[in-house]
């Protein structure tokens, strides 16, 4: 955690860093880009879930009964912000197949430049941890809006973790000004946003590179 960005966690694991560099390369194929994002999401998910509380359940092994550790409480919820978040969610769902998957679809209103919802489908909130995912934390407006949506559906900030592949300092500041208690987990804190709100050096348009669109 950096003192100038409280509640931001940058994963410096060599595998995550190497795979991210492969993704940034503009010659990477659509197939390679998707596969790498799934792999990084899985590795980041492993770190993000490290502190989940455990309880014990009595089971019978072939030799004897035992009190075996199992994750306490309700299943996790993975919530991608559409559409770029979908592939990160796939990686997380591979790691935690029993998780529930919600969806938040947002588009950018051309006049107000603000996010507008077009789809919200979420599991019940009570006692559940939500991992909200979007590969690029750029301006922070979509991320703030998505947490507002979760709040409206009864999910408290203390139940949410936000996972982004690449973040811009501007986006992290905007996000934490609105939701200081929601931790942000990212693989890189890049330099800045350009005049078109792209992250620099970044990796370009994550949605287009994931889905092979223009
Ligand atoms: N969204 C992207 O896909 N890329 C950026 O650099 C910023 C926002």
Automatic annotation (TrEMBL):
GO CC annotations on file: cytoplasm
By its UniProt entry, which Pfam families does this protein fall under?
UPRTase (PF14681)
Keywords, sorted A to Z: Allosteric enzyme, Glycosyltransferase, GTP-binding, Magnesium, Nucleotide-binding, Transferase
Activity regulation information from UniProt = Allosterically activated by GTP.
Top-rank taxon, per record? Bacteria
Its annotated pathway?
A: Pyrimidine metabolism; UMP biosynthesis via salvage pathway; UMP from uracil: step 1/1
Keyword Nucleotide-binding found: yes
Q: Which residues does uracil bind? A: 199, 204-206
A GO molecular-function term, please?
Answer: magnesium ion binding
Cofactor binding: number and manner: Binds 1 Mg(2+) ion per subunit. The magnesium is bound as Mg-PRPP.
So where does 5-phospho-alpha-D-ribose 1-diphosphate get bound?
Answer: 83, 108, 134-142, 205
Q: Which reaction does it catalyse?
A: UMP + diphosphate = 5-phospho-alpha-D-ribose 1-diphosphate + uracil
Keyword Cytoplasm attributed: no
- Which InterPro entries would you find in this protein's record? PRTase-like, PRTase_dom, Upp_B, UPRT, UPRTase/APRTase
Question: What does the record give as EC number?
Answer: 2.4.2.9
- Biological function: Catalyzes the conversion of uracil and 5-phospho-alpha-D-ribose 1-diphosphate (PRPP) to UMP and diphosphate.
Per the record, the similarity remark reads:
Belongs to the UPRTase family.
What's the protein here called? Uracil phosphoribosyltransferase
What are the leading ranks of the lineage?
Answer: Bacteria, Pseudomonadati, Pseudomonadota, Alphaproteobacteria, Rhodospirillales
């Amino acid at each position: 955690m950096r003192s100038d960005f409280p509640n931001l966690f940058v994963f410096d694991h060599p595998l995550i860093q190497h795979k991210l560099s492969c993704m940034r390369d503009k010659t990477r194929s659509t197939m390679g880009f998707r596969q790498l994002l799934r792999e990084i999401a899985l590795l980041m998910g492993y770190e993000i879930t490290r502190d989940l509380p455990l309880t014990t359940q009595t089971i019978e092994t072939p030799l004897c009964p035992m009190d075996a550790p199992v994750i306490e409480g309700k299943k996790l919820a993975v919530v991608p912000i559409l559409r770029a978040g979908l592939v990160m969610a796939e990686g997380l769902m591979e790691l935690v197949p029993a998780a529930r998957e919600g969806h938040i679809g947002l588009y950018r209103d051309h006049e107000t430049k603000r996010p507008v919802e077009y789809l919200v489908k979420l599991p019940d909130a009570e006692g559940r941890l939500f991992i909200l995912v979007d590969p690029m934390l750029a301006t922070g407006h979509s991320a703030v809006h998505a947490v507002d949506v979760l709040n409206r559906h009864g999910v408290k900030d203390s139940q949410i973790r936000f996972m982004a592949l690449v973040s811009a300092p501007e986006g992290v500041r905007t996000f934490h000004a609105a939701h200081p208690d929601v931790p942000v987990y990212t693989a890189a804190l890049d330099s800045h946003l350009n005049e078109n709100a792209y992250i620099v050096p970044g990796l370009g348009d994550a949605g287009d590179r994931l889905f092979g669109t223009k």
